[in-house]
Design a protein that fits this description.
The structure is a homodimer. By secondary structure, chain A is of the alpha/beta class. Chain A has three domains: about 45 residues, Up-down Bundle (Single alpha-helices involved in coiled-coils or other helix-helix interfaces), CATH 1.20.5.170; about 210 residues, P-loop containing nucleotide triphosphate hydrolases (Rossmann fold, 3-Layer(aba) Sandwich); about 50 residues, no CATH class. Helix content of chain A is about 55%, strand content about 10%. In chain A, helix 1 crosses helix 2, helix 1 packs across helix 3 and helix 14 runs antiparallel to helix 15. The termini of chain A are far apart. The interface between A and B is large, with 60 and 60 residues.
Chain lengths: ~325, ~325
C-alpha cells in the first residue's frame, strides 16, 4: 500500500491501516521517516480533532482497570476511543508483546477502540515525536477520544501534558503524609484528580483523600484556562464502575468551556509551537550524537579538558568551529 | 596593558589586574572574548588550585554576615580569600553598584581579600561561563580560598555546585514544617549544612534544627565522595563568630580526605568535562538566538505551525536544513 492509499484508508477509519501507520511513524529508518512525513502532511488537511486526554498515575493505582472501564463507558455512549501508552522506561518492543492489550481485555475487543502499547525507545525526544504523530494519526482516523496514558515518573507527564487538551491524574486513597509524595509540578498540570479504589475498605479513606487534594488544589495559583470550579478532585471506583459517568461529564464540561472561551485553540496553537521549537533544538543537538567522527572528536577533547590540557571553553570553541558555528558572544 | 602583561600581573597576585581581568571575561564583545580566551590559556599553565567553596542560602539567612565573619577568620589565619557572587536574577550592573562591598564592609578593606559582585546577565549560561572564568582567574592569582555565593533560588545552586570542591548550605533555625521547604535536590548537593543565628533567643531552636537536618541527611543515599561522617549539619553564629573555626576545620578535613582518596581530582575532571559538553550544546543552540535572519524564519514557521498550516516536524526539518543539519533519524 502506498502513502496515498494508506492516507485514504486511515481517513476512512480503517484500524489496520492506522496500526500500520503508527508502526511507520515509530520507525527510525530514513525512508520510513520520509514516508511518515508525507503521510502526516496529507492527513493534516482533514483538520480533525479528537479530545486528547492525558492520564497519569503511579504503578498500582489501577490505571489499566480505569482505562478499560472508562473506555467501555465511552464505547457504550457511542463514541470511539484510541488508547496510546507512553513509557520511556519501557523496554518492550512496539506492539509485539501482548502486555497492553491483555491488560485491557474487553476494550481491546471493541470495534470502536484502538489500543497501542508504548513504543520502545531510550530517548524521550524520540518518544515525544512518535507519540505526537500517533495522536495525529488517531485524529485523522476520526476517533472521538484519544487517551494518552503515562507512568507517573520522570518527565513523561510534562511531555504528555504538552500534547493534551485535558490532563487527568489518577491516584490511590492515601493518608496525609503520602499526599506529599505527589510532586507539586505534577499537581499543577492536573485538570482533574481522580481518587481511584473508592470501594470496599478504602471508601472512607478515598473520601478523605479527595478532600485533602481538593484543599491542595485550592492552594495552587489560578490558571487562566480553568473555569471557577477547576481543577477539581473526585472519587471513582474503576472496578465497580462508580463515578466514571460523572468524571466524563466533568471532562466534557471543561473541554466545552475551554472551546467556548478560546482556550482550546490557544492551547493547541501553543503546543504546536512548543513542539516545533523542541524539534529544532533536538535536531541541532542530535548532530553531536549521530555523527561518529564528531562523537570521537568530542570524546578526545573531553579527555583533554578532564586532564587539564585545555579549558572547557577553548575545547568547546574548537568543536563548534568544526560544526560551522562561531563562538557565541552570549 | 596587553594580555601578556595582564597575565603576569595576575600571576603576581595584583588585585587591580585581577579586577580588570574579571571585567574582561564578563564582556560580551567579540574582541574581548578573544582576549579573555588568550588570557585564560596563558594562565592555565600555572596549574594553581584554590579551595572552591560554594555557599548557598535563602535571603535573610545572614549570608553576607557569615561571609564577612568567615572571611575575616581566614584572613586572620594568614589565608587569602576571593568572594564571587552569582545571582542570575540580579539586574545590577557588574561592579558598578556598591551592594556587595558595603555588605562586607570589613572584609572588603582587607588586602588578602577580593570581593566581586554578581555580573548582570539574563542568561544562566552566560553567568555560568563568566563565573567559571572568574574562578580560574582567582586561582591564577593564587587565592587560597574562593567562595562562590549564590542565592537559594532556581538552578543557580546546581550550577555553582558543578564548579566547586565543597558545597555549603547556610540555613536559618526553623521548625519541623519549614524543614520541608528545602528542596531535596539542594540537600543532596550539600557537604555541610550550617544553621546560622545560633545565638540569643534562637539558640535552642538552632540546636533542634541541626538535629533535624542531621536526621534528614542520614536518610539520603551515601555518596562515594563522602567520608563516614559527612555530609554533616552544625550550628554557627555569624554575628557572635561562634562555630566558624569548627566549620572551617570540617571543610579542611573534608577537602583533605577527598584529595587523599582521589575524589578531588576526579571531581575536577568530571566538572571540566561537564562544562565542555555544556558549552558545546549552548553554542549550538545559540545560533537560534543570535542570527536575526534565522530568528525571523523561526518566528514565521512558528506562526504557521500554530495556525496549523504546517506540522511541527515538517517546519522543524525546514529550519534544520537551513542550518545544514539533516533530519535526525532519532
Amino acid at each position: 500500500m502506498n502513502v496515498v492509499e494508506l492516507a485514504d484508508q486511515i481517513a476512512a477509519g480503517n484500524r489496520r491501516a492506522l496500526a500500520r501507520a503508527v508502526t511507520l511513524v515509530e520507525s527510525t529508518r530514513a525512508d520510513h521517516r520520509a514516508e511518515a512525513a508525507d503521510l502526516l502532511e496529507r492527513l493534516r488537511g482533514l483538520n480533525r480533532q479528537s479530545l486528547r486526554i492525558g492520564l497519569s498515575g503511579t504503578p498500582g493505582v489501577g490505571k489499566s482497570t480505569f482505562i478499560e472501564a472508562f473506555g467501555m463507558q465511552l464505547i457504550a455512549a457511542g463514541l470511539t476511543v484510541a488508547v496510546l501508552a507512553v513509557d520511556p522506561s519501557s523496554a518492550r518492543s512496539g506492539g509485539s508483546i501482548l502486555g497492553d492489550k491483555t491488560r485491557m481485555d474487553r476494550l481491546s475487543r471493541e470495534k470502536g477502540a484502538f489500543i497501542r502499547p508504548s513504543p520502545s525507545s531510550a530517548a524521550l525526544g524520540g518518544v515525544a515525536r512518535r507519540t505526537r504523530e500517533a495522536i495525529s494519526l488517531c485524529e485523522a482516523a476520526n476517533f472521538d477520544v484519544v487517551l494518552i496514558e503515562t507512568v507517573g515518573v520522570g518527565q513523561s507527564e510534562t511531555m504528555v501534558a504538552q500534547m493534551c487538551d485535558l490532563f487527568v491524574l489518577l491516584l490511590a486513597p492515601a493518608g496525609g503524609d503520602e499526599l506529599q509524595g505527589v510532586k507539586r509540578g505534577i499537581m499543577e498540570m492536573a485538570d482533574l484528580i481522580l481518587i481511584n479504589k473508592a470501594d470496599g475498605e478504602l471508601k472512607s479513606t478515598a473520601t478523605r483523600t479527595v478532600a485533602d487534594y481538593a484543599g491542595a488544589l485550592r492552594l495552587l495559583r489560578k490558571r487562566p484556562q480553568d473555569p471557577e470550579d477547576f481543577p477539581k478532585a473526585m472519587a471513582v471506583s474503576a472496578t465497580e464502575g462508580r463515578g466514571l459517568t460523572q468524571a466524563w461529564a466533568e471532562m466534557q464540561a471543561l473541554a466545552q468551556w475551554r472551546r467556548d472561551e478560546g482556550h482550546w485553540d490557544h492551547s493547541r496553537a501553543a503546543q504546536a509551537a512548543h513542539w516545533f521549537d523542541y524539534e529544532v533544538r533536538e535536531g541541532l543537538l542530535a548532530q553531536l550524537r549521530d555523527d561518529p567522527d564528531l562523537r570521537a572528536a568530542m570524546a578526545e577533547r573531553s579527555r583533554d579538558v578532564a586532564e587539564g590540557t585545555a579549558t572547557p571553553s577553548a575545547a568547546a570553541r574548537e568543536i563548534l568551529q568544526r560544526l560551522g558555528v562561531g563562538a557565541p558572544p552570549d
